[in-house]
Amino acid sequence: MAQRVLVVDDDRTVSDVVCRYLEHAGYQVDHVGDGAAALAAVAAAPPQLVVLDVMLPVLDGLEVCRRLRQRPDGVPIVMLTARGDEADRILGLQLGADDYLSKPFSPRELVLRVRSVLRRAGGEPVAATAQMLTDGGLTVLTGPRVARLHGRDLALTLREFDLLAHLMGHPARALSRAELLERVWGWRFGDQSTVTVHVRRLREKIEDDPANPRRIVTVWGVGYRYEPADD
């Protein structure tokens, strides 16, 4: 059965092109034009992924993203932002969007991003084989994509999980933002603030004191390093 994608965009020209390319790629596509309709559509029949524009009538895309992230099913979200709206892009990532594209964008690139996010959502591990990574009460299982801290399941987005798994899989090694962007996101070029935002969100979920992180530490002028627990 084809995977279902919900496209949420009030620009008919853009949505027609996006829907056509996604359908040609083999997805079942539904379309709504405002934020309230998007929430109703997801509640009625949860899709496998939502393509979500930021600028929407009734409820904007950022509010829709925030509400979708409160759902237990964790539906993946790819956000569409206007070129140059860095604040919206960063806020969308902070609210839990799994990926984003800036308008104008290539419909083919959008299809590739959707395919990548869905592949990871379907259980593709970061590494070639499934792993169990453990450190100081933190456990990551890359096969079923489960992360637990002191026995409690962590609510991580797809990218947060992949980033944590990659950092834990390379302990005590300084990793640049550019390297993380390529290894976790698969982007050779891109806005490295994406990495910064996701690290900040991860710290809020796994650090005892996010303002003074012990696990994911900043390597000034380079990027980040995962520090294994002393025990």
Automatic annotation (TrEMBL):
Modification 4-aspartylphosphate, positions: D53
Origin superkingdom: Bacteria
UniProt GO BP: regulation of DNA-templated transcription
Keyword set, alphabetical order: DNA-binding, Phosphoprotein, Transcription, Transcription regulation, Two-component regulatory system
Annotated DNA-binding residue span(s): 130-228
GO cellular component, one term: cytosol
Coiled-coil ranges from the UniProt annotation: none
Domain Response regulatory: 4-118
Annotated PANTHER family: DNA-BINDING DUAL TRANSCRIPTIONAL REGULATOR OMPR, REGULATOR OF RPOS
Protein name: DNA-binding response regulator, OmpR family, contains REC and winged-helix (WHTH) domain
Organism of this sequence: Micromonospora matsumotoense
Source organism phylogeny: Bacteria, Bacillati, Actinomycetota, Actinomycetes, Micromonosporales
